[in-house]
């Protein structure tokens, strides 16, 4: 039941994302006329070799409009990024639910080791699909964004990808790429 509702929600979000992409293209087409006017005004100013008060006022208005158009397009793109993040989250939840429900064939035992090249490829693919934070000029990046460290009392949530230091079979400690399943406050692990 949960898988069906997740599928319908994903289909709904994909439709909304498609609409946002259309809106982005419409916004670009609408703002293109203004950008052409800016370019033509600059060309006229260069042929006359002077900046008159008329051109200064005209350019100020054109640039104000262009800035407003760019901000509107930015807002639409931010909404699209939020939809993409929500879709990815639902896909991950669906995958976990399917695994718990036993819908995947786990007849083969999991491989204990993977070649380093395969791991690097998986890491690279994962890095390319990490959520993208795009803030406004006045916004500060959130914790764990880029090189911004987490607060001292931060606890990773289930599903977060982390670098974890674990004991290997031979007793050595190694760093691995892991996904948080749960957190125990008692053991702080």
From TrEMBL:
Transmembrane segments: none annotated. One of its GO terms (cellular component) is SAGA complex. The keyword Coiled coil applies. Residues 3-41 form a coiled coil. Residues 152-189 form the SGF29 C-terminal domain. GO terms for biological process: DNA repair; negative regulation of DNA repair; negative regulation of transcription by RNA polymerase II; regulation of cell cycle; regulation of cell division; regulation of embryonic development; response to endoplasmic reticulum stress; transcription initiation-coupled chromatin remodeling. Keywords: Coiled coil. InterPro entries: SGF29, SGF29_tudor-like_dom, Tudor_SGF29_rpt1. Gene3D superfamilies: 2.30.30.140. GO terms for molecular function: histone H3K36me3 reader activity; histone H3K4me3 reader activity; methylation-dependent protein binding. CDD domains: Tudor_SGF29_rpt1 (cd20393). PANTHER family: SAGA-ASSOCIATED FACTOR 29. This is SAGA complex associated factor 29. The lineage of its organism: Eukaryota, Metazoa, Chordata, Craniata, Vertebrata. The gene is SGF29.
């Amino acid at each position: 039941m949960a898988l069906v509702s997740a599928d319908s929600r994903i289909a709904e979000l994909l439709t909304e994302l498609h609409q946002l992409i259309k809106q982005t293209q419409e916004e670009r087409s609408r703002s293109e006329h203004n950008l052409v006017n800016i370019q033509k005004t600059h060309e006229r100013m260069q042929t006359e070799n002077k900046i008159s008060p008329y051109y200064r006022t005209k350019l100020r208005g054109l640039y104000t409009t262009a800035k407003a158009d760019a901000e509107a397009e930015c807002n639409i793109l931010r909404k699209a990024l939020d939809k993409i993040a929500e879709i990815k989250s639902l896909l991950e939840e669906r995958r976990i639910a399917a695994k718990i429900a036993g819908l995947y064939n786990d007849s083969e035992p999991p491989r204990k080791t993977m070649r380093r090249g395969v791991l690097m490829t998986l890491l690279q693919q994962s890095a390319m699909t990490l959520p993208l934070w795009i803030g406004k000029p006045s916004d500060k990046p959130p914790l764990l964004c880029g090189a911004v460290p987490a607060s001292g009392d931060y606890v990773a949530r289930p599903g977060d990808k982390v670098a974890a230091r674990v004991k290997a079979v031979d007793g050595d400690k190694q760093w691995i790429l892991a996904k948080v399943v749960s957190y125990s406050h008692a053991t702080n692990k």
